[in-house]
User: Fold these one by one.
Assistant:
Number 1:
Amino acid sequence: MRIVLVGPPGAGKGTQAQYIASHLSIPKISTGDIFRANVSSGTELGRKAKAYMDRGDLVPDEITIAMVRDRLAQDDARDGFLLDGFPRNVPQAETLKKILAEWDARVDIVLELVVDEDEVVRRLSGRRTCSRCGRIWHVDFDDKQDDICDDCGGELFQRDDDREEVVRHRLEVYQEQTAPLVQFYADEGILVGIDATGPIEEVTNRALAALRPLDR
């Protein structure tokens, strides 16, 4: 089964991708993992990507797509995969469609993790990071009454990208870039929305229920 997972920051894509891929015994493939693997291995694509990353620039689509193509061509992805973080826009989705068509394959289903904007803001802006051990706590979910890490006694702080105004800006960017992508897959007839609120296990069960008709 070939799956694409989409959703806004804070929707739980990374967690759900891991659970779903494990349940289906297919590789979870994310652009972050691909970048790290290519950079650490010193591949030609990795060296090109690192040059952009070191300057703080976005890695161009052509390099990202080339890395994804190489990864999808590996043996473990031959019978299926779950893509997390790719494609991010319609041009990437069109290119992915062409790549898979070359192998007489296609994306079977696109799962969109749907979560209310205010819930995303609550999830992300409530996170606090320990300055000593790095553990992440949440002011609501962990019932934290102070700014001290219960594990090591380190001071907790809020990362800049977890501040409410930054989170809301990230959501605006997501909507600008990804709303057309969601519509693209809806037009393809393979988009399924999954309610991403509630306990992790419940969200996973909803996703697996949506996949069950295809898992034969």
Number 2:
Amino acid sequence: MHLTRLIISFVLLTFGSIVALPLLASGTISNATLPAAKPGTVKLFVNRVGSGKAMDVRNDTDVPVEVVLRLTHMVNVTGVGKGLVRKTVPARTRMRVATLRKRQPGYPLMYQHSFSYSLIYSPEPGKKGSVGGYAYALPWKGGPFSISQGAGGDYSHTSPKGRYAIDIAMPEGTPIVAARAGTVLKARDGQHGRMPNPAGNYVRILHDDGTHSAYLHLRRGSVKVKAGQQVKVGSLLGQSGNTGRSTGPHLHFVVQKAYGDSMLSIPFRFSQPVSTLPNFASNN
């Protein structure tokens, strides 16, 4: 897995389905900034335009995405070459990626299509797709360690609350430290295995801008902080473990903000680079 192309794929096989999406006055959609909407979604819309079809992508995430549109079994279709379209859609925009036209008027336009997308995201400063904001210190001591599942990882980083999380493979007992100063909101220390909480033992910290950082799958009995405690960058929180829904010893680190009654994962960056391993959590 390449860090700047952490892939999350949602493949939709449809047969010429039409979903209404308001068009701009010119009949095209390009780099239009979107209002706030349900976070963390990328959707393909198919609109009727004259006798053809227009395909638009709406990106409601906070990072750019590369979309891949494949058309097969095309009959009387022109405008998409051999049927493979790749486009980069900026964060929080809607954009037209393809327009299908009839080769011969009066005959039906037929095709099948599949749609997938990849987050263009890196938590490392200076790389394409990097995000701004606070630069988090590495939340562990020792190493070096590597990312085993990144943002949009296909095993478990697909939900709005975990989309931009990262997993760092490391031995159990590795010291886990605060990546940013704040106040401990919650800490769990008594879980032994996978159940009952999929997060296992964890620490959640509130920061001065209202965001949270969370450190999951910690070793039982290792957590050193309590709710209400102030921590500084580098303060010892506990030790890495393998509790909760974990495929092996690692630290799950995520930055979130409140969204209604739930928490929404948001992009972040580290203050220094972290290397990447193959995605060992892949379902493939």
Number 3:
Amino acid sequence: MRQRISPARLLASTSLIAAVAMGLGGCTAMSKLSDVTGSVGPRAEAAPADRASTDPARAVDAYGQRYRANPKDAALAYGQALRANGQRAQAAAVLEQATIANPGNKALLAQYGRALADNGNFQQAYDVLSKAHSPDNPDWRLLSVQGTALDQMGRHEEARSYYASALKIAPGDPGVLSNLGLSYMLSRELPKAEEALRQAYASPRASARVRQNLALVVGLQGRFAEAETIVKADLPPDQAAANVAYLKDMLSRSEAPHGAPKRTPVASLSQPD
């Protein structure tokens, strides 16, 4: 939870602006945290044996060479590497071609659907992900991603049904609970948002993303001192100060000149591995 991530990856699309709701975009999160959604395919393919495993740019280079030599065998790993490196449009293009060549490959469909969500193509992402698993054999991770796509389209009640289904399979998963909390934030149900996020935060598996989302919803309810305490907990002074500054900036986005629509903070929905 101490890893520091550059602000450039903290905000995604600002296309969703609600009157007093929480804007959600892309697939990165508020503050020094971000998840790059993982593969539903074999882990060995997704993790190169060399230094590329910890360096997205190296992974793109390594898998790019393999992809150019044999697109069929390396498309999934190359698409994942592109997504991890923030090359969203290229990732979607690579994975689209791979799914055309392999229409029944659910791992490719799952990764392509996630890439589409990364790229803001939420309806298409939802549709593609629906083909990546089935009602008789659902993948809770994909259910959660489908929920995020529905939330991005303003279909919050539907999104919550997907989170509920995911939580039946993976009870207490902090990523899904965090998404549920952000969904309630979008519909201005801040106490419910806080309740879900506190459940997520209580999990020993909670990431820094959950901490920051909880701090944000607490701050949106006017309890900034409490939000500041949450956002600084267990962090070195420099990172704590950076997080507080970022939290203030996020909360300031909910303010607007008199008579103008309120622009709200932008955070993001998690797409769990």
Number 4:
Amino acid sequence: MSVYPEFQAADVPRETKPSKPKAKPTNNGDDSAVVWTPIAEEAARAASVLHPDESLLPRPTHRRVITVANQKGGVGKTTSTVNLAAALAIHGLKVLVIDLDPQGNASTALSVEHRSGTPSVYEVLIGEISIAEAAQVSPTSPNLYCVPATIDLAGAEIELVSMVARESRLKEALSPEALDQLQPDYVFIDCPPSLGLLTVNAMVAAQEVLIPIQCEYYALEGLSQLLRNIELVQQHLNPDLAISTILLTMYDGRTKLADQVTSEVRGHFGDVALKTVIPRSVKVSEAPGFGQTVLTYDPGSRGSMSYLDAAKEIAHRGAQREGA
């Protein structure tokens, strides 16, 4: 019997493992005796991440605006946002990350300035500056931009209540004309862990929702409320919004529970759930403390390879939908 009655388990393929490039010969050109070492393998993986073939990922014909949302905290929203954005940027695609969480964790991970007084998403929401004026280039990649969140954003929900078209403030700021100044291929909006007015603004401004789900016991609790809110936004504010991606995070292959949650999610959401899962990784957790994504902090790690595989899957799925 299912642990979660609202989700019916199904026979689905097991999660894909991140691809591991084979180590090159380390024997001074003698191909007859290939020497394998863990360090050589990780170096090969790191090289494949830092020097990818840019032709691997298709450029979308239409700009994709993706909201990353889940009202449950600690499921990997910000981590997934910045690492997926970095993975796409490494492949030559131009990506804009909008930090809509007052904690400013995405800004920290992308190493952009977000002290009080810095031009930020708060000024964008109240109409003082444009999105291009607030965007900063991340040191992570010249293709990666971030609109930071400062502590001023903490009071934004109260201020927005009295504003005209309060649910559409971000949508107005992300008009095609405004985004054309930056010309991003992808826009990722990192939401706070709540279903408040900031999250609603993010959903109204986007065409797609990406939901990270942690592979643990409480992962699916409250998910029905998130899905209900998305339905309400679709019915009343943004009929073009769709749940395009479910990303399973913090997967621990040593536990049966992780497999059960994975099966529950895939049984309910079907092909919307990515085949790639993100493993629980110390390197992924450490990277933001150094103002980096895991792809630059430890490019050969399992976490880095997994986020790279997830980004490839998102890009190719989008191209298939556009071509359909």
